[in-house]
């Protein structure tokens, strides 16, 4: 760890911990989250020198890390319900059947193709931003680094791209019924 990172850690460590505590409402989870945040900061050490507002940058990393953990926990809890260990029901009965029907699979593929075709009508910058966020599932910070723009610019592009894509989809009468029912 460089001197610059050590200085940042000393200056913002308490702030990040209190932010994590506010988000998680648990000291143990706050410490885990804070550790993940600092690991990301160390991994992105080369970006530190380019950051103008370190506190805002750290806040963004913290918020995105918290959101990622939350989404991961929601996905995980979707498959196994949190039940007491003394439950008389076998654990396999608690696992929902997430298989979708053949009809739903065909419909999903059709909608995906339609959306991908309509995405081609967007400007390249909007296509790329949507692709990174929804398909590659990059965080806003990662997209910002890839595209060499601020996180605010990424957010604006996502907002505009979604709005424009919605316009394009709704302007095609043949597509409206398919997309609205999906």
TrEMBL record:
It comes from the Bacteria. GO terms for molecular function: DNA binding; sigma factor activity. The keyword Glycoprotein does not apply. The keyword Ribosomal protein does not apply. Residues 8-75 form the RNA polymerase sigma-70 region domain. Residues 114-165 form the RNA polymerase sigma factor 70 region 4 type domain. CDD domains: Sigma70_r4 (cd06171). Keywords: Sigma factor, Transcription, Transcription regulation. It holds the Pfam family Sigma70_r4_2. One of its GO terms (biological process) is DNA-templated transcription initiation. Belongs to the sigma-70 factor family. ECF subfamily. This is RNA polymerase sigma-70 factor.
């Amino acid at each position: 760890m460089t001197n610059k990172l050590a200085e940042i850690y000393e200056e913002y460590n308490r702030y990040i911990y209190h932010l994590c505590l506010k988000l998680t409402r648990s000291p143990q989870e706050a410490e885990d989250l804070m550790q993940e945040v600092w690991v990301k900061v160390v991994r992105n050490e080369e970006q530190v020198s380019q950051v103008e507002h370190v506190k805002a940058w750290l806040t963004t990393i913290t918020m995105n890390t918290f959101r990622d953990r939350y989404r991961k926990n929601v996905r995980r809890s979707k498959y196994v319900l949190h039940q007491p260990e003394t439950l008389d029901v076998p654990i396999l009965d608690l696992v929902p059947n997430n298989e979708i029907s053949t009809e739903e699979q065909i419909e999903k593929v059709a909608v995906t193709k339609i959306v991908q075709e309509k995405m081609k009508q967007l400007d390249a910058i909007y296509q790329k931003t949507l692709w990174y966020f929804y398909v590659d599932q990059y965080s806003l910070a990662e997209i910002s680094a890839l595209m060499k723009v601020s996180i605010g610019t990424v957010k604006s592009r996502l907002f505009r791209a979604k709005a424009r894509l919605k316009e394009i989809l709704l302007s095609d009468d043949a597509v409206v019924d398919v997309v609205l029912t999906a």
